[in-house]
Amino acid sequence: MIKEFAQGLWITFKHMLPGNSTTVQYPRVERLQPSERFRGLHRLVPGHDREKCVACYLCPTVCPAKCITVESGENEKGEKYPVVYKIDLLRCIFCGYCVEACPVEAIEMTGDYELANYRREDFTFDKQRLLR
Fold first, then answer.
1. Is residue 16 within a helix (H) or strand (E), and if so which, with residue range?
2. Cα(101)–Cα(5) distance, rounded to whole angstroms?
3. What domains lie within the chain, and their CATH numbers?
4. Sign of the four-CA dihedral 105, 52, 83, 118
5. pTM for the structure as a whole
6. Digits of tens for pLDDT over the chain (132 positions)?
C-alpha cells in the first residue's frame, strides 16, 4: 500500500517539475495545431477563372442548420454560378455535410479555428470573404 502511494506521489511531483507543463500558453507563446480531420472555417475553392461552385443547391439542401444561402445566375456562356453565396456561422454546426454533398468539390473546411468577433455581422460570410 505504501509502495502505490509513493508511486502516485512520484507521478504527481514529476508533473510539477519545470518544463513539464500541460498548459498551452495560447496565443502568446504557441498556437494549437488542429488534427487533420478538424472542421473549421469554410472556404470556397477558386477555379481558374471563377469559383468552382455551379450553384446546384445541394449544400443548402443538406445543411441541417439551414445556414447556407445560395442564389444562382448564368454567365454569357450559359454556365450557372452563385450570384449570392452566404454562410451564417452563428447558425452553423460545422457538421461538414455541405462539403460531402458538393459534386464539384467547390467548398471545403479549413483548419482555421479562431472565429471570435465583436459584431454579429462579422459572422456572416459572403462569397468574396469565402474565396479569400
1. helix 2-16
2. 55
3. 37-131 (3.30.70.3270)
4. positive
5. 0.77
6. 899 999 999 988 888 888 777 777 888 888 888 899 999 999 999 988 888 999 999 999 999 999 999 999 998 888 899 999 999 999 999 999 999 999 999 999 999 998 899 999 999 999 999 998
